[in-house]
Design goal:
Chain A: This is Thiolase domain-containing protein. The structure holds two protein chains of two kinds. Chain A is an alpha/beta fold. Chain A is built from eleven helices and twelve strands. In chain A, the strands form two sheets. Chain A has a ten-stranded mixed beta sheet, sandwiched between helices. In chain A, strands 5-6 form a two-stranded antiparallel sheet. By secondary structure, chain B is mainly beta. The chains are: A alpha/beta, B mainly beta. Chains A and B meet through helix 1 and helix 6 of A and strand 6, strand 7, strand 8, strand 13 and helix 2 of B.
Chain lengths: 346, 315
Amino acid sequence: MREVAIVAFGQSDHVPDSAAVSEVEMLMPVLNDVLGRAALKAGEIDFVCSGSSDYLAGRAFSFTMALDGVGAWPPVAESHVEMDGAWALYEAWVKLLTGEADTALVYSYGKSSPGDLREVLTRQLDPYYMAPLWPDSVALAALQAQALLDAGVTDERALAGVAARSRTDAAANPHAQLRGEHPMGEHVVAPLRRGDCPPIGDGAAAVLLAAGDSARRLCDRPAWIRGIDHRIEAHALGVRDLTDSPSTRLAAERAGAFERPVDTAELHAPFTSQEIVLRRALRLGDEVTINPSGGALAANPMMAAGLIRLGEAAARIQRGASRRALAHATSGPCLQQNLVAVLEGE
Amino acid sequence: MTTGTLSAPLVVEFPFTRSLGPVQSAFLTGLRERTVLGVRTTDGTVLVPPVEYDPATAEELRELVQVAETGTVTTWAWNPRPTGKHPLGRPFAWVLVRLDGAGSSLLHVLDAPSAAAVSTGMRVRVRWAAERTGAITDIACFEPYDGAPGDAPEEHSGDFADAVSLVTLPARLDYTYSPGRAQTAHLRALAERRIVGERCPECRKVYVPPRGACPTCGVPTGERVEVGPKGTVTTYCVVNIKAKGLDIEVPYVYAHIALDGAGLALHGRLAGIPYDQVRMGMRVEPVWKEGQRWPDHYRPAGEPDADYDTYKELV
């Protein structure tokens, strides 16, 4: 099997409101940053794959506008997923494995500020039984958090600890939206307090993938993808055990995460309670550094926050701060769908 | 000139009409008739609400079962701020409820005076909506209940008179749309009856209207360039079908017009000349109308036609 690595990663600053720029204007500096790191130009990439959702900004076919940013004319080999960019990365990884491409540019972006994100996300739910009730993303996460509290798996203090650690770590992350200690605040939907929830904001991220010798040529220290897999659970919340994440565990197994210990994990846990679920499913002990970037609790641009986990893990390997890192991305209510990748240095 | 980014309200409404299929039709019609149905899975578990395929084995499920209107809260969350779209207009609890006889939980809301009155394991029952149409909202909400458990589940044919087979599910999302830097500048100039594009720093092409990036070079555009007002017809068509709600007599001409200085053609209506006299290469100018923020149409500029070589790259 071909070896594929992340050779460059870039992201925007994540902000509450990016009204001054369009999607492509928000994205362009990130794309130029990533291409610049590998001394490549748009048009020199074999495959482009992006992740975004038109529902966020209420703008139909916004991804075709964003394509202007990669120099789509003359025609490029391109694909798009209506998912987090982590799944666009998965598609690009498969494309590189086929041998049809040596390099791939993966990007994703989310502009949540034009709409009411909590309401927008209800539209991804089952349209017959759930969506007519308008159960928002915080409400569904709160049902999961209460199930964890009832099961004695965690308590409010432990959740506050996750929030504090994430935002304290984010103080060193210039791109993060919430940096430094924040009060837990009042209940948004009990038992979740303001501090248990991610900030709502706009942002973009991009990752450059390369295979084999191309990766070594483009980067001094490629972050090799040793394994990557994604799994999904039933859509109906009422048939799932919300205190566990069997899809994460299975994806991790298939990605080889349990073969040897990792030293770092970038977990896409938008809510404090979800980090508890993921740590258990992934059997991550206290010796593993969790979300040194601050994670999704510090910046959660929709459609990009999962890709950022892969990028942050890779960047840590490239800096020499990690030898073997796990990166995770999630999608859907209460950790419905999960992707796990294992990255290593040379 | 005004500065700052433009923005405007944008409402997106999508009243999807969806077909239900046999299982969902029986469940939603059942709610209309104050009957809660589940479906039995391959291993004998009763799922409420019912699904068409077994979540574990993917086998087709058709064996319907009537369950009780009473049940137990398996988890809950207190929502202090209803939005107006929620089933209840006062603070309420989101709940997953396992109805007596069911092996899975149903998402709905619980009417309770405060969070202190709600707990996992508490007993609840359905409060039916006064008017029922065959929708999940036929259950108005759940309410606390301290009576006896409901009857044991019974097989049910799923047959009802006037079964609901299609549902229309309206949804509305409200946005505040902002067009970004390049298009804001374009729109502000239009308000002054000027047409402004942006030039690519690499290939020098001028994009009108500008989108902020050059799709050939993949770089940001920034240098603002005023184009026109006159332009050249690069190609056109004759429209013979009257558009709904458009007060323009057919036939009329719709044309691609390359404004002087622009690197691509934009479209506009041509008037002030019989439709069968319009030509490629014709020189035209915009006609602005009071109160309109873009050219109403273009008309002949009274200049000799442009030579084909001057606009062939823009056709």
